[in-house]
Design brief:
The chain is an alpha/beta fold and 309 residues long. Helices cover 39% and strands 18% of the residues. The strands form two sheets. Strands 1, 2, 6, 7, 8, 9, 10, 11 and 12 form a nine-stranded mixed beta sheet that branches.
């Protein structure tokens, strides 16, 4: 790979995924691209790069960005934010949304689906208290292959051993060959959709909780500011933004403030951001445009069953 080719790939990667690579990552970049050589029939990374440079290389450019992006995910990763969601956020939202009986959640970088399925299992544990509630759990990513795997809900033995309690494995999964398949009821709770955080299509609406964990760490400061500004527009006025434990909005956005009693990584909208909000006229939830949601069906067997509203 020539210096010119590396710089070109680096620019495309930054534009598509927000990832900023330095010269020391050249070998890692080449390693991530090698599977594409076999898939698309190229003899070398240089030949692949030249094909990307052509006007008709749009599809290859997109696949390159997806191939290089880290798709690291596992169930109940770091545990603390999931404990806080189940013990504090969900009860608070149920009290605040008593009139509408509607809660919207967004996993903004879902990778292969373990995070939204973890949230779905937590919600399923609350089903007796959520009869009649509409739960919209949207999970997005820009990587086609990752979303394809997430939609299948099929995981290897190694993947289910990473963070998933045995009790939940037995309760919400079925053995499938050498792997495990998540139950259809849990899979149906999550709506998967292709979406790039760097390009807001404006159609997602507003959410009560946004999980965007361990994503900002791969961005430069300018990209972090852009993404946080977009996330602020999609967060309800009393909603929660959940970042990774090592991530922060400090010095990057004045739209957020840390939730005092939560551990690192949980934020709400700042007073300045709230003051700038225009009332939506929807009962104070800032719920945004209506989108398909899943409604808990009361008195339905099995114990947790969801039907489209």
């Amino acid at each position: 790979m020539t210096p010119r080719e590396f710089n070109y790939l680096r620019e495309v990667l930054h534009e598509r995924s927000g990832i900023a690579l330095n010269e020391e990552r050249r070998e890692i970049l080449e390693g991530r691209l090698r599977p594409m050589l076999k898939t698309f029939g190229f003899a070398s990374v240089s030949e692949l790069t030249r094909a990307m440079m052509r006007p008709d290389g749009e599809y290859l450019r997109g696949r390159m960005a997806q191939a290089v992006t880290v798709q690291e995910s596992y169930f109940f990763r770091d545990k603390t934010p999931f404990n806080y969601f189940g013990e504090t956020i969900l009860p608070r939202l149920m009290e605040a949304r008593e009139a509408s009986h509607a809660i919207r959640l967004w996993c903004a970088a879902t990778a292969t689906g373990q995070e939204p399925y973890s949230l779905a299992m937590l919600i399923a544990e609350w089903v007796p208290k959520l009869d009649g509630w509409s739960l919209d759990l949207l999970a997005t990513d820009f990587a086609e292959d990752a979303l394809r795997k997430a939609r299948k809900g099929l995981y290897s033995q190694f993947e289910v051993q990473r963070g998933l309690p045995v009790s939940l494995l037995i309760k919400y999964f079925q053995k499938a060959g050498t792997g495990w398949e998540i139950n259809p009821d849990i899979r149906a709770m999550v709506q998967f959709r292709e979406h790039n955080l760097l390009r807001d299509d404006g159609e997602l609406g507003v959410f009560d909780v946004i999980f965007c964990r361990n994503v900002l760490i791969y961005f430069d400061d300018a990209t972090k500011r852009q993404v946080l500004a977009r996330l602020a527009l999609h967060l309800a006025k009393d909603g929660y933004l959940v970042l990774g434990a090592a991530e922060t909005t400090t010095g990057l956005s004045d739209a957020f403030t840390a939730v005092p009693e939560a551990q690192h990584g949980v934020f709400g909208l700042s007073p300045a951001a709230l003051a700038a909000r225009v009332p939506k006229g929807n009962g104070g939830t800032d719920a945004g445009p209506a989108r398909p949601a899943f409604k808990v069906a009361p008195d339905t067997a099995p114990a947790f069953a969801y039907s489209c509203r």
